[in-house]
Design a protein that fits this description.
Radius of gyration of chain A: 21 Å
Shape of chain A: globular
Oligomer: homotrimer
Number of helices of chain A: 8
Largest interface: A-B, 40 and 46 residues
Structural class of chain A: alpha+beta
Order of helices and strands of chain A: EEHHHEEEEHHEEHHHEEEE
């Protein structure tokens, strides 16, 4: 069903049909070089991703690749087919990390169009997709839904949105039901936690490796954790990261083109903001070792080179999964140029909030080691 | 024949003699870290260099190192002995990629002086060299010629250029014949294509991995392919790349020194412009999997941090080499701050063209898989 | 003895007691990716760290990790517990590189408080520490002492410094003797040289790999070696390096916070200045293959993005250690924005000197191969 007329410059809204599937190009073997560069770019310190003995002490055969690096690489694969001509990435839902990925694994990804909604302005539409990422054994390692605003082709011969028809059903696109997502990933779906992770964890070993004293059983809900550090992002920081992910969305790379855009400059890839906020959250949530799910999230304001990021985490729900590990649903908020630890934060303005992310992390439990 | 008086600050024009040979220092083992950093710096997506299964499907034992990374590392080795005091790199010829290089291989290089021409200004001369790069088994992997303008030593005791004598022949340097190069590498010389590459390629497999539908047999000559993306280069982008290549030419690194130069700032290493234009050319020439030869080329204008690069490829000649693969001679032109896809390009000025490169790439053929 | 009330934002002067020991978090497996990124960030060319065959020709089983990368990673581990709230790193002493570290080794570190001195201003104190770094077999690979000025907590309930008591002895902190360090590491203590390094070196092999003709026996004492190159540091250069080291000191990363500091901007991590000066020193001291000790040193002025560094080495003492190798004590001075090779250097001002480092390097001897 892939259009035979694909242009290197990507698709537009009118090129898509419900049920259409893309097998994205550029399979990628993840090397220790990729992992080292990612870690340095975001200042990661989670020992699960940088200590072979620690990973083995948790039952992993070797160091697993950082969940968010897997996400960014998988996401990057989808850009040429889905969001090369995107106006904005509107939201994520039901993102689940199914299996760990290791150095030497090769990832590829597919995307299915699951919803289409033409906007009334006639210039853009919203494309809803489900993307899946697989390893070299075709095992699903990651799945997520997102919706993205895409330009319509500037072509007078195109039918108006109200006449577009779903290629599968023949029904008008406007009549197709849009997908509905759960508010968050249910604990029963956090398969990775049950099957793969922390099989042999000991909270004393974990504390020595992470430096963190807060375990799953200690977490108080609805108490914000203001992470102490801030991190300034410079131009090469984010373009190097986004090129590492092989994400080609031009808004991040082409300052000549962006001079004439609304903001007059390159935008930082939203996924990089997620990674940096997660890295900042290490100080205070050292034992939130893996990301099991991204329940939803939005980039509430754009971020530019020179901005300094801060993060606040607020635990919202928690579920013990087994004797070793629990799942913690967190609200992770990112701010720019306003430190939540200082008095200035009472004056933080709405346009300084850059990230609102609802994610579920896995934390070892304290009890099983005492 | 290596001068025993070598200074750490490099040689000057009058230090060279025809036939003189340099065994360059600093052998280099290429790691997956080098490869990952290179890929991220230029935004490469060619799956031959980032997917182990894809490389193996083409008959390679493992992922080969990007040809241009090999070139830059080999080139970097020659800088301390050849172009540390260069004014400008004037041209390349007869550059042939002989054998693939793999992660773990160790490269070293030699250079022979093949021509000398003192300039009439008495201050500079042109040095013609042939450089060869070998792996740890002393197998030739890459060979190229270049000519470079080098300062004469500011030393009144030196003979005028007209009295310089070739140390081998005793003849005046001015009388030495300058080397003559073919316009392009003949297909019969593209040894690597015949012996090493694409032995088991299947164009269906290739298309799924690269996303490209244009195969050797489909290419129309003399039809420019305007690549859709642009890429802005920031200061750390190019200095980090050039340090990765262990290229020490000071014009790239020392802004204090460059403040008093003609341009008042650091220059970007021309090889980096080649790499970025090749990376931009992936969208549209996804199946141009390897570089077999650089026939010639020049850096027509300098590039600086902040410039945005665009690329246009024009196929000029094509030769089927065997049932699996053909060679395509391309003109690759690079422009700064003017997008060839936009109307503004009719006003592109001569000083916005930064690269004119004549190269030969290898592309799988479509026919053998149908 | 680790305080149970540890905050993610680090400790203050009054939290420390003599004899207290910290087992730092975040063990780190060093990968070829870490090594490649380090090499590119500082422009390193020492073939011992980038050529597998050369390392093996010296008797190493494989490429050892650059000594200073080991130092920075070990140092980074200590920051959260020791210098997160540091005003300034005042000095180093008795730093010894005991055993080589290889790709795949996992490092962890401990620190013991060995001296405390409250400053009379009541706002800061000096903490003297001994830090040790171990590999995954708990073998000591590196040890060093440093002293650092740390803020006192802004808390009226704290006792004045004069009443602080050592938790071990019960004596007033002011009465504790401060540690005394030797001026330099004695040759007998350079264990690594004797036991591990250059066991099979041949100076002809070394010269071909390094390009350097100056061997241990050739070095003239008290003759400054002005290294020819300069290197400009941009913002991403130093933040990427410091994040690679997992060093979290906020003065390097948070430009929003630093806007209100004395300098109004981010400071470059002093260790990065050491690495860059050592890299610049390769041209002229190509055969100074490893660092055996850092005898002492100070960062005499801060360095900022945009500054260009230059280096001058002055050999001060030399000791033959065995038939293969000698130890050379060097004074390594770093300057910013003033090239020691130019006439301008006579006007260099005191605030342009950024590094005064006293280190001992190991160099192969010429004699044993003739």
């Amino acid at each position: 069903m892939k259009p035979s007329t694909r242009q290197p410059a990507g698709y537009f809204f009118d090129d898509y049909a419900i049920g259409q599937t893309f097998a994205h190009a550029v399979p990628r073997t993840i090397t220790s070089g990729d992992s080292a560069l990612y870690q340095a770019l975001i200042g990661a310190r989670n020992p699960l991703h940088c200590s072979e003995p620690f990973a083995q002490s948790l039952g992993y055969p070797s160091v697993p690749v950082d969940d968010l690096l897997v996400f960014h690489i998988a996401f990057g694969k989808t850009v040429p087919d889905i969001s090369y001509n995107a106006v904005a990435n509107l939201g994520y839902a039901d993102c689940r990390f199914i299996k760990p990925v290791f150095i030497g694994d090769t990832l590829h990804a597919t995307t299915k169009i699951i919803g289409l909604k033409a906007n009334s302005n006639g210039k853009t539409g919203v494309v809803y997709v489900r993307s899946d990422c697989f390893n070299q054994r075709d095992e699903l390692v990651l799945t997520w839904a997102r919706w993205v605003m895409v330009h319509r082709q500037a072509d007078a011969s195109l039918p108006p949105a109200s006449l577009l028809r779903n290629t599968s059903t023949g029904l008008p696109v406007e009549a197709s039901p849009l997908p509905i997502f759960d508010e968050f990933v249910a604990p029963a779906q956090l398969e990775s936690a049950i099957q793969f992770q922390f099989s042999t964890a000991d909270s004393g070993v974990v504390e020595r490796a992470t430096g963190g004293t807060l375990f799953f059983d200690d977490v108080a809900l609805d108490q914000p954790i203001k992470h102490p550090a801030g991190m300034t992002i410079d131009e090469t920081d984010h373009t190097l990261a986004t090129k590492l992910y092989q994400n080609t969305a031009r808004v991040h790379f082409d300052s000549h083109h962006m001079e004439n855009s609304r903001f007059g400059r390159r935008l930082i890839y939203g996924g990089q903001i997620i990674s940096i906020c997660r890295s900042l959250a290490f100080d205070g949530l050292e034992n939130a070792l893996t990301v099991a799910a991204i329940n939803g999230g939005s980039h509430t304001n754009p971020t530019f080179a020179g901005d300094t990021l801060y993060a606040v985490s607020t635990p919202r729900m928690k579920w013990p999964l087994n004797a070793n590990v629990g799942a913690l649903r967190l609200q992770l908020d990112g701010y720019k140029n306003c430190d939540p630890n200082l008095a200035e934060f009472v004056n933080v303005s709405a346009d300084q909030k850059v990230l609102s992310l609802d994610l579920t992390v896995l934390m070892p439990r304290r009890s099983y080691s005492t």
